[in-house]
Write a structure and sequence with these properties.
This protein has 99 residues and is mostly helical. Helices cover 54% and strands 6% of the residues. The protein contains 4 helices and 2 strands, in the order E-E-H-H-H-H. The chain has a two-stranded antiparallel sheet. The longest helix is centred in the C-terminal third of the chain and has 22 residues. It is elongated. The relative contact order is 0.10.
Length: 99
């Protein structure tokens, strides 16, 4: 089941579906944080004219995005994935060096 569906009021037709494996019904700011983490803040700027609520939830987008390195660390520990663990630790410390 897709996480978000968009049906503009003027047409009522489905115009977009955003689907991520790790999301569910909840805050769309989490989905947008995932997009900005992968595609950059510039992508959100391109979406803004079609998704005017982005400006209103910008603080939540920033917060969720700031938690992603912690999720990488947890994933690395839980699954023995040293690359994910190191990437998360580098992002948390702001270091480009291996940890």
């Amino acid at each position: 089941m897709p996480c978000r569906r968009r049906r503009p009021a003027r047409t009522g037709k489905l115009s977009a579906v955003i689907d991520f494996a790790g999301c569910g019904e909840g805050d769309p700011a989490y989905d947008l944080a995932s997009l900005s983490a992968g595609l950059g803040d510039e992508f959100l700027a391109l979406m803004a004219p079609q998704y005017p609520g982005i400006a209103v939830i910008r603080d939540r987008i920033t917060f969720y995005r700031s938690t992603f390195p912690l999720l990488d660390v947890l994933f690395g520990v839980d699954h023995g994935d040293s690359a994910a663990l190191e990437a998360g630790l580098r992002a948390l410390t702001g270091s480009d060096e291996a940890v």
